[in-house]
Design a protein that fits this description.
The protein has helices at residues 72-79, 120-126, 159-168, 211-219, 235-248; strands spanning 13-25, 28-34, 49-54, 88-93, 96-101, 104-112, 132-139, 150-154, 174-181, 195-202, 228-234, 256-262. The protein is α/β, with parallel strands linked by helices. It folds into two domains: 13-139, Beta Barrel (Elongation Factor Tu (Ef-tu), domain 3), CATH 2.40.30.10; 150-262, Rossmann fold, CATH 3.40.50. Strand 5 and strand 6 form a beta hairpin. It is globular.
Length: 269
């Protein structure tokens, strides 16, 4: 579930190729893409996200016949493409963007890699320079560009979004960010306002995603009534945080942005 408003950017389908791949932490791989077509991309910061088209194993994907929008009509056109030439579409967040990189515009994408699980993450783990991709910019979910206080909560899949929001918040912002990982070694240095406390927690292998983050959320002594909140990651974490904030803390629904990026046992669409 999600209440994120999808914004179909006028740039439409942007073509790019892999420039490099680097392991940021044991389970996070950063793929940097580039290409002249990236000059059409309008960078907005925060948790800006996009639909990413990546190749599928043992197929011959085409990127020249993908739709320019991913609304209902665009999705149906995508499904009508021959399966053996159709890339897989997954949602990702802009981790970083440099309009004047060493090779022209550069866009960083972070992937959580669990061995051979999934499609996009294994592709990222073995991506090579020159590999073709394409994406459709869908805007930002975060609605509090100048907001404070803030409350951010998510798991490892939401780390790029939370890091982007913290990076772009006004330096005088205050609040709390709760980030849950399944491996403490995946912790990163995050740039954010001095007044926003970042709480890192690690769940046990036997615990469901969100277990530790939601426990920390419930233990917060006070949450300001005028808080702007953002909850993302595994579906149960996102909806559980919203339910707690609205139902138990009395925070208006309009102040809580939430999005289930994935669901246990199901691939992210």
């Amino acid at each position: 579930m999600s209440n994120v408003v999808v914004t179909h950017a006028p740039s439409g389908l942007v073509h790019a190729h892999v420039l490099r791949r680097v392991a940021v932490t044991p389970h996070l791989v950063r793929v940097t893409i580039g290409g002249d077509d990236l000059r059409r991309f309008e960078y907005r910061g925060f948790d800006q996200w996009f639909r990413l088209a990546v190749p599928v194993r043992d197929t011959h994907p085409r990127f020249d016949n993908l739709p320019d929008r991913f609304d209902m009509g665009g999705y149906l056109r995508y499904l009508a493409l021959p399966k053996h030439t159709r890339p897989v579409i997954r949602n990702y967040t802009v981790r970083g963007f440099r309009p004047d990189g060493a090779h022209g515009p550069e866009l960083d994408i972070d992937f959580v890699v669990h061995g051979a699980d999934g499609i996009a993450a294994p592709w990222a783990a073995s991506a090579e320079a020159g590999d073709e991709v394409a994406f459709i910019d869908q805007g930002c979910g975060w609605r509090g560009e100048t907001a404070e206080p803030v409350l951010l909560i998510g798991d490892e899949s939401a780390l790029p979004a939370i890091a982007g929001i913290l990076r772009d918040l006004p330096r005088g912002a205050t609040g709390t960010a709760i980030i849950e990982l399944f491996d403490a070694a995946d912790r990163q240095e995050i740039e954010g306002p001095a007044g926003v406390e970042v709480l890192w927690v690690t769940r046990s292998p036997e615990d469901a995603p969100g277990t530790e983050a939601l426990a920390v959320l419930r233990d917060l002594v006070s949450i300001p009534a005028d808080v702007t909140a953002f909850a993302a990651g595994e579906s149960g974490l996102a909806t559980g945080a919203r339910r707690h904030l609205v139902g138990e803390r009395g925070i208006p629904k309009s102040q809580v942005t939430f999005c289930g990026y994935w669901k246990v046992g199901k691939a992210a669409g």
